[in-house]
# Entry
Amino acid sequence: MLNTNEGEIQLHGIGGSPGICIGKAYLVGKEGVDVVEKYFISEENLKKETRRFRKAVKKAKDELCSIIEQTPKKLRPHDSILEAQMVLFKDKMLYGKTIKTIEKEMVNAEWALKKVVSNVKSMFDEMTDTYLKGRAADIMHVSDSIMQNLVGSEKEDIAAIEKRVILVAADLSPADTSQIQLEKIMGFVTDRGGKTSHTGIIARTLEIPAVLGLDNASRIIKNDDIIIVDGTKGIVIINPTDKTLIQYEERKDRYEAYKAGFTRDSHLPAETVDSVLFQVMGNIELPEEVVSVIRYGGDGVGLYRTEFQYFNRLDFPDEHELFDKYKDVVEVMAPRPVTIRTIDVNADKAIPYASDLDEINPVLGLRGIRYCLKKPDVFKTQLRAILRASAFGKVRVLFPMISCYDEVLHAKRILNQAADSLDKEGVDFDKNMEVGIMIEVPSAAILADMMAKEVDFFSIGTNDLIQYSLAVDRGNPQVAHLYQPLNPAIIRLIKHVADVAKDHGLEISMCGEMAGDPVNMTILLGLGMDRFSVNPQSIPIIKSMIRLLNVEDARLFIKEVLKETTDTGVTELVHNTFGSIIFDIGYTEL
Ligand code: PEP
Ligand code: MG
# Structure
């Protein structure tokens, strides 16, 4: 944190989505438990205080009751968890002890609840039994809902925000971020998150400036503070001086003019100086985003992250609903291809109604294809919808989080079952629909030669491949400096996969954020990538960069790159070799 003149404060974080916005801060999702203050209650007011606590408990209980009533019958296991939570409202450990603490220590209800909960939590933390640990999670849920009623904070509904503001939060989940309405939200800043966290990815798709990984912005920034968000440089300025405001207004105009320049050329093909044509496609999360892919000159949708259609609802979408959405995208893009990735749920993209997991390491847990193979009905429903959409254009299916060979066979078996069932019903679909896998777990990269026998294409997901290869949480700002796309280990892994793909005559594409940085093109072309899929707003700059490069030179350059031992060594080599091209693109100057 930098305190500059006249009370202006500068915070430095990670540029999550480029661009500049200036406006009023709107704080969301302050976790009640963390902001609780302690104050003493006089003896005559103690009864009133315990009554206030009981009222908050009753309200939380009523709310849970109505959630249970609304939960569809087929979600029984989820229901029983809610019922177990219901019992906890009257539990001695929580309810009884909080009332006792209020009375004995003569403190406010929030403080008493916080104290009781942290005692209970440390007790459960020492246990190894997973069932009991699950109960600890229930207690946290129940106490959070009581706390929310005590402090009077409603659960934030981002979709319902009325003013045009800049969101400030400790963290925003991908599900929250996908609800953002562009006419209300100018940008956002969060304490957590990194460049390739899903929250950052969505900000880029929405084209709103975002700074992430600020550590404690949500504690420093107050509601209605005027803030500047510089998503290109990763800077947030609180209460800027007039001079700073003018400077940033000018930079904002410059950035917009720069972006418009690239957009003008976005329909030109991505053809290198030595006449090699590359496909540059767009990544989308929601069907509406196809419009951006077309506007920015995308050659298709290279990654449709379908899990977003499963968020912010009470039950799984059915086959018709999914089919309708896929068909819309496929028809709008036709004849350009659409690669539909099957749901990559869990980890940071958990669907509350779908599982009651309490995983200690969710990123290494029941995520992506692992979840689908455990829930064949959910998987088959989606596969039938994808197959049906394939009758309306060029559709390819892509399986995420493949970590071993068996998973590919198992996923294909279920795909065949879905195809057979449609065949029997006489429903039309593309019988030659291509099947691909994400290469985003190191074991899949290492086994690429085996995998290649089973699929039609590979798509390298560098966001996770880097996370899992370098053991760096992609959303943790503390280790963001170790999240290195140009680490020699990553370059070697990509090279291995690309070489295997070439040997087997397989198409190889990259859909991770690494492909959205024009500087990386100098290396990726030389490694032998066939196509790229990037955030729609990055399509124009990536195409422009490709037009300035020469594949033959890039191949020779890789020989030099492979001699480097560190990511800084690679970065310096790239800048020393391609400095003038990178300067022409103007990318680093904004
Ligand atoms: C990736 O991991 O690179 C990827 C494209 O998938 P996601 O970002 O959705 O995890
Ligand atoms: Mg991934």
In short: Confidence is low (pLDDT under 50) at residues 30-35. DSSP finds 22 helices and 18 strands in the chain.
